[in-house]
Amino acid sequence: MTTMKAIVTTAYGSPDVLQLQEVPAPTPGDKEVRVKIHAATVTSGDARIRRADPFLIRLIYGWKRPKTPILGNEFSGVIESVGDSVTQFKKGDRVFGATGFKLGANAEYVVLPESGMVALKPENLTYEEAAAIPFGATAALFFLREKGRIRPGQKVLVIGASGSLGTAAVQLARYFGAEVTGVTSAGNADLVKSLGADKVIDYTREDYTRNGERYDLIFDTVGKASFSASKRILQPKGLFLAAAAGFSALFQALLSALTGGPKLVMGVVEERREDLDFLKGLLESGHLKPVIDRHYTFEQTAEAHRYVDTGRKKGNVVITLAGE
Hints:
Blueprint: E1 3-9, E2 18-24, E3 32-42, H1 44-51, H2 57-61, E4 74-82, E5 94-98, E6 109-113, E7 118-120, H3 127-131, H4 134-147, E8 155-159, H5 164-175, E9 179-184, H6 189-194, E10 199-202, E11 215-220, H7 227-230, E12 234-242, H8 247-258, E13 263-265, H9 273-285, E14 292-297, H10 301-309, E15 316-320
Parallel strand pairs: 8-9, 8-11, 9-10, 11-12, 12-13, 14-15
Antiparallel strand pairs: 1-2, 3-4, 3-6, 3-15, 4-5, 5-7
């Protein structure tokens, strides 16, 4: 049996539950590829699953302990082997992608369908840079383009503009021709401006719901904004895009759909290869760039989680498994 090293979540709890272990390596099926991972990330989603926060995460990933013990969604690396019926990739291809709800990217190898969320890596990016793209950028693209129907000239407010999702959202909204305002702390203002934001609001000093501005789209990337308070700064047909919404937001979304005025819009991000290919084009043309806050080695994955738990991460936290 072929084995690999992986960061295994032994229970729900603090980063101390993460252990580097030797586990069986996955074997690709007939229409699957196996990727040797060079770089992956630790996201706020990984940290929430590890903590079982909210508690209902246990309904998805296991009640007493994680039934999906290897975390990690984003990755980049090299295709190490392919199934007999694979036609789109070959051994040696440099790729990037996402594993979705199955997770498993915090390991030396991962197996995916050749039709899944995997694409050739942009040539102008390192493995670490490429790994920092799939989750945040595909989610931002889904909410802005598919749910928000973003159009040139619209005014867009991005709440949590310095995070993984927020940094991608600012750049994509700008690419689609919108006037972008980012909400973040003063320490991250220069970063958000450098990504294309026309204005930046320091939420610690200014209440963006009372500054007299009105927006076509409000994109809450962190799940901390109030729809009821935000309605007064939305245009009559404006949309509040909730990327990290709970059950109360679901009720508000249903209610807003039945009444006039602004709407709260939720959704589960659809994993589509064409979105990854679209982002690849933006990365190669310079319209989108990865934002990396800190780098960690594979063995330091627990430390990476501790940093993500602080809530002060800017952009992405990357872990490196293999050299270029």
